[in-house]
UniProtKB/TrEMBL annotation:
One Pfam family from the record: EGF_3
InterPro entries: EGF (IPR000742), EGF-like_Ca-bd_dom (IPR001881), EGF-type_Asp/Asn_hydroxyl_site (IPR000152), EGF_Ca-bd_CS (IPR018097), NELL2-like_EGF (IPR024731), Pan_app (IPR003609)
Keyword Lipoprotein attributed: no
Protein name: EGF-like domain-containing protein
Keywords: Calcium, Disulfide bond, EGF-like domain, Glycoprotein, Repeat, Signal
Record's keyword annotation contains Cytoplasm: no
Gene3D superfamilies: Laminin
Domain of life: Eukaryota
Location of the EGF-like domain: 362-400, 402-442
Disulfide pairings: C371-C388, C390-C399
Length: 677
């Protein structure tokens, strides 16, 4: 295998670790590059020794270590999810990163399928995890291959160590500010960019540097040679940080990181300040402080601090923080600070009794959902008390305006394609005489024309088609009435799936790889024998025909999608959402009069999944999802192909609708057919 830690291909939960399917075989030929691959040697090759290597970006050297372990295959050591220990030691694992390796001092559990007691924390398919405590309860550091977990689940191969690691202590420049510039001051505050300024001005500069949970601040006065520093950390108890929690900040001094003072004994209209930029005001009032309470299920970050005021500061500095839980007891001198991305309004059931905690909620200007079209709302910003971060394709203060990429020319359509604006995006459709995905259109090849003419001249049956050096029998539909509303022309089979099986579940590797499945099923027409043919990744098209057959019925119902692409694989394998605009009634027609969906959300297309971190809810590789709420955060209904998630994980093709659906609750498992033209 080769793994790129910046990609999610081989993250801990990937089915590639437990499946006997290859991934990008071409990458197995190219040596020490970043082209990911998984070869048949993963499940076919016995061994007595494993060699593991890591290369840090920008470095030429690859660091290697050896594991003396015998097995029938690497698959046999990993696929069953069982922990198998090794005894290399932390220093050996850290050597994979040269002098940069870092781990916490406790736990240090190593081997295969390494998981701490908490499933959300650090884990590795091959590697070592560490903890700040003496146990392996909530590990926060790791070195390994196929990794995930707090605090950075996106790092899937490498080293992650945030809290009190054994090789910490280096400072990293985060920002410079010229005190005479207004680019980072109110109201045009740019703190959210978090990009170091390259301004070489020698006026008042501020250096903000981060070390674990410490912040180092410096001011340099022009013509003065001495640099003065202070630190915000567990020992800097004498530094008072006011985090915007003033009664009326717009009428007085305010600062992003600062001390602010007043002649009076209040902070209503502070007249003086020493600090760095400003733009946010968070109000944590006594009426929104709950002793003996803890807000659960919305934690975005965990830190360990000395004192509640530092937890307040961390929430102020984290733009998506709305509230925090502060643990009042500590055995180590440090107290847990849990930053939350919501407040209890609308989530009252998540506010639990816990006498070890205090819950602090900021005044929440986002509680009325002022941001439209699933935009992110952040409280405490601007004169309105909030700001909206629009999704790509939308603009405006509240993200109500659709960006027309076609009229502005900001699209990637081929010169031989027409651009069609859609809500929040656009479609590229190859012009007549060309084929492709719309961003790359080319004239029909001789092979395509010959195959098309062959199909047009014969009856419905399997034809022998050539893919490279391989010849495969592929079922073609020529009868103009066989596929209902999909219409006339030659249609080529791509896939058949049985919704009662897990073969084509949303998470199946068959959606992302270029491996066939049960080629014999590609010859048998409209039955329930599952298949995936080379046409999935080898056949360009301008139209897709989708069909579902309900058990006990003699016929299937079909709908068409007018969409051009190099292949179905090119639309799905990268896991990127691509919208369609068929409408909920068209999708429901696949089930005749039985189709049912919840009323809201109606997100449809390819790789359709929840617009939130709740990825366990309804999703579909091709289809539509619905929700009872106005957003698409936790959808409970779906119609589609390659489905999964709540409320029925096991229905992989058909209709699932449990809560307040427009045609009653349904769990209809179907046989699905996918053709292209």
């Amino acid at each position: 295998m080769k793994i790129n830690g910046a990609q999610q291909t081989f993250q801990y939960g990937s089915p590639l670790w437990s499946a006997k399917t290859a991934f990008n075989i071409v990458g197995g030929e190219t040596g020490f590059d970043e082209q990911e691959t998984k070869l048949p040697t993963y499940w076919e090759t016995p061994f007595s020794k494993i060699c593991l290597g890591m290369k840090i970006p920008g470095k030429q050297t690859v660091h290697f270590i050896a594991v003396n372990q015998s097995a029938d295959s690497l698959y046999s050591s990993i696929a069953d999810q069982q922990f198998r220990s090794t005894s290399l030691g932390a220093a050996k694992w850290k050597s994979l990163l040269g002098s940069q390796g870092s781990l916490q001092l406790g736990c240090r559990k190593e081997g295969f399928n390494v998981i701490c007691n908490s499933q959300s924390h650090a884990k590795a398919r091959i590697g070592i995890v560490g903890n700040n405590e003496a146990d392996c309860g909530t590990c926060d550091s790791r070195i390994g291959f196929g990794t995930t977990g707090d605090h950075d689940s996106s790092n899937t191969c490498g080293n992650e160590a945030v809290i009190a690691p054994d090789n910490g202590g280096s400072w990293t420049l985060a920002m410079k500010i010229n005190g005479e510039e207004k680019q980072r001051n109110t109201p045009a505050c740019k703190w959210e960019n978090r990009i170091s300024s390259k301004d070489k001005a020698v006026n008042i500069l501020e250096h903000t540097l981060l070390q674990d949970l410490s912040i180092c601040l410096n001011m340099n006065i022009p013509s003065v040679q001495t640099l003065s520093f202070i630190a915000i950390n567990q020992s800097a108890t004498g530094f008072n940080v006011i985090s915007g929690s003033v009664e009326n900040p717009k009428n007085g001094a305010k600062a992003r990181i600062s001390i602010i003072r007043n002649n009076e004994h209040d902070c209503i209209s502070c007249d003086s300040k020493i600090g760095f930029a400003s733009c946010r005001s968070l109000k944590f009032t006594a009426t929104r402080t709950f002793k003996g309470k803890r807000f659960i299920n919305h934690t975005m970050r965990i830190a360990y601090v000395k004192g509640q005021e530092f937890c307040d500061v961390l929430c102020f500095l984290e733009d998506n923080c709305f509230s925090y839980n502060f643990m009042t007891i500590s055995e180590t001198g440090k107290q847990k600070c849990e930053l939350n991305n919501a407040t209890h309004e609308g989530h009252e059931r998540d506010l639990k009794k816990d006498m070890d905690y205090e819950y602090y909620a900021a005044e929440n200007s986002c509680s009325s959902n002022p941001c439209h079209l699933n935009a992110t709302c952040q409280t405490g910003f601007s004169e309105r008390g909030y700001r909206c971060l629009c999704l790509q394709g939308f603009a405006g203060l509240n993200c109500k305006t659709d960006v027309d990429e076609c009229s502005t020319g900001k699209h990637g359509c081929d010169v031989h394609a027409d651009c069609k604006n859609t809500e929040g995006s656009y479609e590229c459709i190859c012009k007549p005489g060309y084929q492709g995905n719309g961003k790359n259109c080319r004239g029909f090849s001789l092979f395509s024309l010959l195959s098309y003419n062959l199909c047009m001249s014969r009856e419905n049956k399997a034809f022998l088609l050539t893919f490279g050096t391989a010849q495969v029998n592929v079922f073609c539909v020529l009868n103009d009435t066989s596929l209902g509303s999909c219409g006339e022309g030659g249609w080529t089979l791509v896939m058949k799936m049985n919704g009662s099986k897990q073969t084509f579940h949303y998470n199946s590797a068959l959606w992302t790889n270029k491996e066939p499945y049960n080629l014999a099923g590609g010859e048998t027409g409209f039955d329930s024998e599952e298949t995936k043919l080379p046409t999935y990744w080898n056949t360009a098209f301008s139209k897709i025909c989708l069909g579902m057959r309900i058990p006990g019925e003699d016929f299937a119902r079909f709908i068409a999608i007018n969409r051009s692409a190099d292949s179905l694989h090119s639309l799905i394998a990268d896991d990127q959402y691509r919208p369609t605009s068929l409408g909920r009634e068209t999708w429901k027609s696949l089930l005749g009069t039985q189709g049912s969906l919840q009323y809201n959300c109606n997100r449809e297309g390819f790789n359709v999944s929840p617009v939130s971190s709740y990825k366990s809810f309804s999703k579909a590789r091709i289809g539509i999802i619905g929700n009872n709420e106005n957003d698409c955060a936790q959808p409970d209904s779906r119609i589609g192909f390659g489905t999964g998630g709540v409320p029925n994980y096991f229905n992989t093709c058909g209709d699932v609708a449990k809560y307040i659906a427009d045609n009653g609750p349904k769990n209809i498992i179907t046989t699905g057919y996918i053709f292209v033209q």
